[in-house]
Amino acid sequence: MARDLDQTIFVAGHRGMVGSAIVRRLKVLGYRHILTAGRDDVDLTDQAQVQAYFERHAIDQVYLAAAKVGGIQANNSYPAEFIYQNLMIEANLIHAAHQAGVNKLLFLGSSCIYPKHAEQPMREEALLTGTLEPTNEPYAIAKIAGIKLCESYNRQYGCDYRSVMPTNLYGPNDNFHPENSHVIPALLRRFHEAKHRGDREVVVWGSGTPMREFLHVDDMAAASVHVMELDDETYEANTSPMLSHINVGTGVDCTIRELAETVKRVSGFEGALTFDASKPDGTPRKLMDVSRLKALGWQASVTLEDGLQDAYHWFLDNQDRFRR
């Protein structure tokens, strides 16, 4: 698809890790009219406010990166908020986009949409073939609903609403909260603080053997724009009306031990690294099959160590945000 740099693009969720990366990517590519809105401008869970917002602005494309997100503890503690807010945000935005005549939209989901025991690496076809991980089931159901909303508006109204499912993301604007963060920001902060306290060791939960895949958020943003800009013929040749979502990842995983050793090196911590095998490991492996995305002409370029360096430097520059 030819790139029209004068189109007005609404990035919903621009203050989050993924949304802010998409804004950066669009600016690098030369897009001149990027529309963003904070909660003071529009409450995305309020249908009337969202509809009014679309009526006020002539929007050509939407990147739906807005979501309520959190780690296992947050998902377990607030399941009602996770399913309600995410359902409302995506339903309001997708429906308002359709009513306003916005034909192009990209919905960002999550790898947690796949069954807990999905075959590895997880292919797009695994969706709805088994039970979900109980701890984040409400969030996963909301994200599955977003995929099906896009597919339904495409089928009934001829819209061009696409969906991408990222693997575990990290990078600038990540959440480094000591209790509610994901594994990479949690480890970066733990090793950093241990270094400055002069600790002799850092203990990581579990055996260190589970394998996980990690994608830098700038790669996620590049992949998102790439999928959005694909011409219809290329996109449709690699998807179907009932299987329209596309996995986004590196296609490469590492053990938690390897991750922790890399974080240790990046942070400059010189003490010992030990693992508490009495603590739970979680799922043994979680890897995305990204063959469909590669067939569409995109693959990740940021190495894990380079990406961790970038995330760590961002944390150092923004520590005041995360002080208790």
Task: Record the SSE blueprint.
Elements lengths: L7 E5 L4 H13 L3 E3 L11 H10 L4 E4 L7 H6 L1 H21 L4 E5 L28 H21 L2 E7 L1 E3 L12 H15 L3 E5 L5 E2 L1 E3 H13 L2 H6 L7 E4 L5 E2 H12 L4 E5 L8 E2 L4 H5 L8 H14 L7
Parallel strand pairs: 1-2, 1-3, 3-4, 4-5, 5-10, 6-9, 7-12, 8-13
Antiparallel strand pairs: 8-11
Helix pairs in contact: 1-7, 2-4, 4-5, 6-9, 6-11, 9-11
Catalytic activity: GDP-beta-L-fucose + NADP(+) = GDP-4-dehydro-alpha-D-rhamnose + NADPH + H(+)
Organism: Halomonas aestuarii
Pathway: Nucleotide-sugar biosynthesis; GDP-L-fucose biosynthesis via de novo pathway; GDP-L-fucose from GDP-alpha-D-mannose: step 2/2
Major sheet details? 6 strands, parallel
Quote the average pLDDT.
94
Cross-sheet strand order for the largest sheet:
2-1-3-4-5-10
Following the backbone from N to C, one meets helices and strands in this order, namely EHEHEHHEHEEHEEEHHEEHEEHH
Radius of gyration: 20 Å
Count of separate DSSP helical elements: 11
Which class in CATH terms? Alpha Beta
Q: What is the number of strand segments?
A: 13
The separation of the N and C termini measures 47 Å
Indicate the overall shape. Answer: globular
| Second-tier CATH architecture | 3-Layer(aba) Sandwich
What fraction strand?
A: 15-25%
Examine the coordinates and then state which fold CATH places here, giving the name of the CATH topology: Rossmann fold
SSE-based structural type: alpha/beta
- Runs in which pLDDT lies below 50 for 5 or more consecutive residues are none
Helix fraction by DSSP (H/I, runs of at least 4) = 40-55%
